[in-house]
Amino acid sequence: MLCHIKKSSSRLLHLVLFVAAITFLVGLCAGFAYADDSQQTPNLAAGSVDATENANSTDQTSSSEATSVKPYKKAGTFYITVGKSPKKVLGMLRNDRTNDTRVVVSRKANTNLLKFRLIRTGETGRYFIKNISTGRLLSVDTRTKSKSKVTMRTEHTWKSQKWDITVNEDNTVSFTNALTKTMLTAYGDKPIIGAKLSLKKANVKKLQRFSLVKTTRNKNEKVEIKVPCYMQNPQLPTGCESVALVNALNYWGFGLSKTSIANKWMPYGSNGVYNFIGNPRDSSGWIICAPGIAKTAKKFLRSKDSYVKAKAVKGESLKSLRKYIAQGCPVIVWTTIGMGSPGRLAAYRSGYPLRYNNHAVVLCGYDPESGDYKVADSLRGTVWRSSKRFTSLYNIMGKQAVVLYD
After folding, report:
1. Same structural domain, 74 and 150
2. What pLDDT, on the 0 to 100 scale, is given for residue 63?
3. How far apart are CA 32 and CA 323, in angstroms?
4. Are residues 172 and 189 in the same domain?
5. Can you give the pLDDT at residue 258?
6. What per-residue confidence (pLDDT) applies to 391?
7. What is the helix, strand, coil percentage profile of the chain, to 5?
8. Do 170 and 233 lie in a common domain?
């Protein structure tokens, strides 16, 4: 009897284990199916539209229209009009320089309160939107639970102040906040003057479409673009040119490491104009001029099939280079370390002076009133340089530059 009970218990135990194993396998298969489905879920990244969301919307674009949106690629100063209405623009009703100033629908007028400057962040299609009058950035108030409040806040370059701008099939643009992934939206079917703006789920409806109308910049406004600034030490103590190119390329969103250009792309030799003399990793490194850096940039950009282009500029005044900065394009220029003496002229090749104290930096801003220039300097960081001294050194170093533009 006892033996029979033991056998029955053993059969029952085996049955329980068998059922548990089947349950585990079913759950495992379901998990794989869920993981596979999650990988296919549309991602609302810059320039994308959630097709599932659109299919359920009463005010929607077709699937062919949804795939036609593309990242915006230009910078400048604009009126932002509601839809294609030339009379209704985004702006501020008063020159309030405090945080949390709301953006509203205004009547078009020639005032800087209604003018916004699009400033590239260095990520394709992603911008800061700065009001010319107040100098504050269009932001999402993250302190509110819904995160739907649109404000103008002090410039901190947070993700809540970054906007993905996409071009729609009708050539209007839409603004998606990089943090919340919701779109700038005007209230009401026909927004009235004074109506505030909000953030709504992305579906590219009529009220989420705006137009950018080119306008003039305040002539006294500082012009600055957000160029990253890798420091060249300790890996590249004499590699300022390669690091300057890395900084300029990273402005366009390539995400390069500090040493990538020096390790893989920059040519080496004994010329100094078209290739780098010495080793940028130690004290033997010396110089490469604008033609060599431009050639390096072009080779890299072709390999990435990029819309960004590079060109060497020779003989242009420093002041004339401002036009590139105003268009949102960084410029590599040659000066000296610490604004010091350029030292002895060692050689003069192909119209370029080769001096012992040479240094390449990225021009990324200027002040029309003082004439000073802002540079991303791989030895000093991002700093302002006095117009007179900086211009003099730029001239002595041969008025050479490399422009990266779209």
Report:
1. yes
2. 34
3. 55
4. yes
5. 97
6. 97
7. 25, 30, 45
8. no
The beta strands (E) that lie in 114-256 are given as 116-120, 126-131, 137-140, 150-153, 163-167, 173-177, 182-186, 197-201, 210-214, 223-224
Per-residue pLDDT, 98: 58
Pair 190, 253 in one domain = no
What is the residue range of 112's domain? 52-214
Report d(CA 171, CA 294) in Å as an integer.
33
**Considering 145, 179, 214, which residue would you say is the last residue of a domain?**
214
CATH number at residue 124: 2.80.10.50
What was the pLDDT predicted at 188? 67
In a domain, 7, yes or no: no
Regarding whether 157 and 202 lie in a shared domain, the answer is yes
DSSP 274: S
Out of 148, 181, 214, a domain closes at 214
User: Are residues 234 and 206 part of one domain?
Assistant: no
What lies within 8 Å, CB to CB, of 209 at 6+ separation is 83, 168, 170, 172, 173, 174
Q: Write the CA distances from 128 to 18, 90, 295, 315, integer angstroms.
A: 60, 15, 31, 33
Q: How many domains does the chain have?
A: 2
Nearest to residue 185, comparing CAs of 169, 198, 174?
Answer: 198
Q: What does pLDDT average to in each consecutive run of 10 residues of the chain (406 residues)?
A: 42 55 50 35 29 32 47 86 87 64 82 84 86 82 76 82 93 93 82 83 84 80 87 97 96 91 98 98 97 98 90 97 89 97 95 96 94 97 97 98 93
According to DSSP, the residues that pair with 354 across neighbouring strands are 347
The answer on 380 and 251 residing in a single domain is: yes
Task: Say which amino acid occupies 277.
Answer: I
CB 143 within 8 A of CB 96: no
Q: Which residues pair with 365 in a beta bridge?
A: 224, 374
| pLDDT, position 26 | 45
Contact 47, 69 (CB under 8 A): yes
Residue 212's pLDDT is what?
93
Domain-embedded: residue 12: no
Same domain, 356 and 386: yes
**Straight-line distance from the first to the last Cα atom of the chain, in angstroms, rounded to the nearest whole number:** 90
| Cβ–Cβ < 8 Å for 376, 321 | no
For 20, the 3-state DSSP assignment is helix
